[in-house]
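Inverse folding, one chain.
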């Protein structure tokens, strides 16, 4: 058995993988694969509706918000949101809190002016900046709620009167958030939703009244809203597997239940990192992510040896991101606590081997 701590793929429960495999062979008993059916069939329209309903229910999305499924990954949102909401008269406020917020800023600059309200670049993005002003005349305020690469997460969101746009790619569905505090939430599917290829956008309808620029159809949020995300061919399979996965989450008890599990998983691993004399954590303890745990060894030459040791126990995907090095263990929703226990005992056994 493999224990997959990878950061990019969606870790899916076995039940979801079985159901997806069945649908690839024969979807709903139609004698056709899910990969072969038209997105205009009543069967797929039912999938679309159930997926939207599950997102609404699990995230407790209030009235007045639309749920959209787009292609292009979260990276396309970096430019698309600026194309829609950044215009000449106003600056957009950005919190520079990690690699992906930096990328979002770079794309926004193609469409207007950006005001970086605070940055944690000085310390390699190992903390979340606090105590900054967001000018009230900003077009919007953008931040990344969980920094997948650096392993930091925001646990309090600054109050502001300007529209709030948040990249929740790597912590959506992992914890309860108050959707009413946001005007637009976006997230690539491939962490806690489903296979890559689909991007979720939850947008307040009133925000869509602020689009001033001429926007190409495929980049216009209103087109997706007005066409029920069926303006062009949507990522049928990704949406279908996301639906199965969200059904699984609902059966488990929903986001509050998984949040309790995620807190326990992260606590277990951070405890071992802090206890074990071979390892140290990279993120400021107050801002440690529950989804992506980054750590290193005091003796870097030992890191490859630890990776080899871990792989003999079925542990995969713990190598750190290339620009950070060390290790990153991603603890997405479907990763069971038993896998974290295996990683923790592996770290402790490695310590015994090295220090005894
Ligand atoms: N934002 C965050 C927080 C991410 O973790 C990622 C990818 O890991 C992205 C954006 C980019 O997503 P995509 O690869 O779907 O474009």
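Residues assigned per position:
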């Amino acid at each position: 058995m493999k224990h997959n701590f990878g950061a990019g793929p969606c870790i899916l429960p076995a039940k979801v993988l079985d159901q997806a495999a069945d649908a690839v062979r024969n979807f709903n008993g139609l004698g056709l694969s899910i990969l072969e059916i038209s997105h205009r069939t009543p069967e797929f329209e039912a999938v679309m509706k159930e997926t939207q309903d599950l997102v609404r229910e699990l995230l407790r999305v209030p009235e007045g918000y639309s749920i959209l499924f787009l292609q292009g990954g979260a990276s396309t949102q970096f430019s698309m949101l600026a194309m829609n909401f950044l215009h000449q008269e106003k600056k957009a406020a950005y919190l520079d809190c990690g690699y992906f917020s930096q990328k979002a800023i770079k794309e926004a600059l193609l469409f207007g002016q950006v005001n970086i309200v605070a940055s944690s670049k000085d310390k390699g993005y190992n903390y979340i900046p606090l105590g900054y002003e967001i000018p009230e005349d900003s077009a919007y305020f953008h931040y990344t709620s969980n920094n997948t690469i650096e392993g930091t997460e925001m646990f309090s969101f600054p109050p502001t009167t300007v529209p709030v746009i948040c990249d929740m790619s790597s912590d959506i569905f992992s914890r309860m958030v108050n959707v009413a505090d946001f005007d637009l939430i976006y997230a690539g599917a491939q962490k806690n939703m489903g296979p890559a290829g689909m991007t979720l956008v939850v947008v307040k309808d009133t925000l869509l009244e602020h689009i001033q620029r001429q926007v190409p159809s495929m980049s216009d949020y209103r087109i997706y809203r007005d066409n029920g995300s069926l303006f062009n061919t949507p990522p049928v399979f990704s949406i279908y597997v996301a639906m199965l996965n969200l059904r699984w989450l609902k059966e488990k008890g929903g986001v509050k239940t998984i949040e309790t599990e995620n807190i326990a998983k992260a606590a277990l691993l951070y405890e071992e990192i802090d206890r074990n004399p071979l390892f140290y954590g990279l993120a400021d303890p107050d801002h440690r992510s529950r989804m992506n745990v980054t750590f290193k060894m005091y003796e870097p030459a030992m890191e490859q040896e630890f990776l080899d040791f871990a792989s003999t126990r079925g542990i995969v995907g713990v190598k750190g991101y290339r620009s950070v090095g060390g290790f990153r263990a991603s603890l997405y929703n479907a990763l069971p606590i038993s896998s974290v226990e295996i990683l923790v005992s592996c770290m402790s056994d490695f310590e015994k081997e090295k220090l005894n």
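The pocket of pyridoxal-5'-phosphate is lined by residues 8, 73-75, 100, 144, 148, 167, 169-170, 188 (CB under 6 Å). The longest helix spans residues 255-275.
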